[in-house]
C-alpha cells in the first residue's frame, strides 16, 4: 500500500524537477543591439562568466552613455575599440574602474567583446573592444600585471560583417589618437535587446 503511493509521488516530484530544470535551462543570456553608422551589431553577454563586467556594461547601456560616442581606435586583423570618446575625441566622464575578470576562462577570439583598460589590470571603465581576430596575446595567463589579460564578457551573434566593415576603415593619427578612423564611425545607440 505504501509502495503504490510512493511511486506516483516520485513521478510527480520528478516531473516538477523536470519542469523547473527546463525553465532554468531556457533562461537566455542578455543581449544588446549596438547601432552604428555602419550598421547594427547584436552582442550576447555572459553574466555567469563576468558578472561585474556585464553589470557595469549594462549600467552604461541603461544610462545611454554610449549614444553618440565613436569607435576611436581601429586596427584591421586585431580589434575595434570604442565606448568612451565623443566625435571630437574628448573623453566622457566615466564611473569608477572595475575589477578585471579576465581569468573567467573566456578567450579573446574573433567576434568576442572585451574591456579596454590601461596597462594596469583593474582599470576598465566604459571602453570596450571587439576582437577582429583571435588574439591569444590578450588572454589571461596569470595574475601578474603583464599576464592578467583583457576580460571577455560577450560575443557578437549577428553583425560581424559590420565589425569587418569598421575594421577596414582607413585610419590616421587624429588629435593625437593613433589608428583613428578617417571617417567617423559613430555608435548611435546601445540598447538591451528582447530575449528570444
Give the SSE map:
Layout (H helix, E strand, L loop, with lengths): L1 H24 L5 E6 L2 E7 L5 H12 L6 E7 L3 E4 L29 E4 L12 E4 L20 E7 L1 H8 L3 E4 L2 E5 L4 E7 L4
Antiparallel strand pairs: 1-2, 1-10, 2-7, 3-4, 3-10, 4-6, 5-6, 5-7, 8-9
Key phrases:
28% strand, disordered N terminus, globular, two-stranded antiparallel ribbon, 196 residues, Cyclophilin
Give a brief rundown of this model.
This protein is an alpha+beta fold and 196 residues long. Helix content is 22%, strand content 28%. The chain has an eight-stranded antiparallel barrel with strand order 1-2-7-5-6-4-3-10. Strands 8-9 form a two-stranded antiparallel ribbon.
Characterization of the model:
It is globular, with a radius of gyration of 21 Å. It has a single domain, classed as Cyclophilin (Beta Barrel), CATH 2.40.100. The strands form two sheets. Strands 1-2-7-5-6-4-3-10 form an eight-stranded antiparallel β-barrel. It has a two-stranded antiparallel sheet with strand order 8-9. The protein contains three helices and ten strands; from the N terminus they run αββαβββββαβββ. It has helices at residues 2-25, 51-62, 160-167; strands spanning 31-36, 39-45, 69-75, 79-82, 112-115, 128-131, 152-158, 171-174, 177-181, 186-192. Mean pLDDT is 90; it is low at 1-25. Helix content is 22%, strand content 28%. By secondary structure, it is α+β, with helices and mostly antiparallel strands.
The name of the CATH superfamily reads Cyclophilin-like
Give the class from helix and strand content and strand pairing: alpha+beta
Query: Largest sheet at a glance?
Result: 8 strands, antiparallel, barrel
**Helix content estimate:** 10-25%
Give the helices and strands as they follow along the chain: HEEHEEEEEHEEE
Amino acid at each position: 500500500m505504501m509502495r503504490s503511493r510512493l511511486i506516483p509521488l516520485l513521478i510527480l516530484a520528478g516531473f516538477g524537477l523536470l519542469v523547473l530544470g527546463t525553465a532554468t535551462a531556457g533562461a537566455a543570456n542578455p543581449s544588446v543591439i549596438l547601432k552604428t553608422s555602419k550598421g547594427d551589431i547584436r552582442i550576447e553577454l555572459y553574466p555567469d562568466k563576468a558578472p561585474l563586467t556585464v553589470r557595469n556594461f549594462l549600467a552604461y547601456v541603461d544610462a545611454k552613455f554610449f549614444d553618440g560616442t565613436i569607435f576611436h581606435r581601429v586596427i584591421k586583423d586585431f580589434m575595434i575599440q570604442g565606448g568612451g570618446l565623443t566625435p571630437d575625441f574628448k573623453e566622457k566622464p566615466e564611473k569608477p574602474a572595475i575589477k578585471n575578470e579576465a581569468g573567467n576562462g573566456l578567450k579573446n577570439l574573433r567576434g568576442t567583446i572585451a574591456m579596454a583598460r590601461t596597462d594596469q589590470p583593474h582599470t576598465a571603465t566604459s571602453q570596450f573592444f571587439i576582437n577582429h581576430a583571435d588574439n591569444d596575446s590578450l588572454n589571461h595567463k596569470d595574475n601578474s600585471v603583464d599576464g592578467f589579460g583583457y576580460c571577455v564578457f560577450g560575443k557578437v551573434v549577428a553583425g560581424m560583417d559590420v565589425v569587418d566593415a569598421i575594421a577596414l576603415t582607413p585610419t590616421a593619427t587624429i588629435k593625437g589618437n593613433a589608428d583613428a578612423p578617417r571617417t567617423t564611425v559613430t555608435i548611435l545607440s546601445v540598447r538591451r535587446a528582447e530575449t528570444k
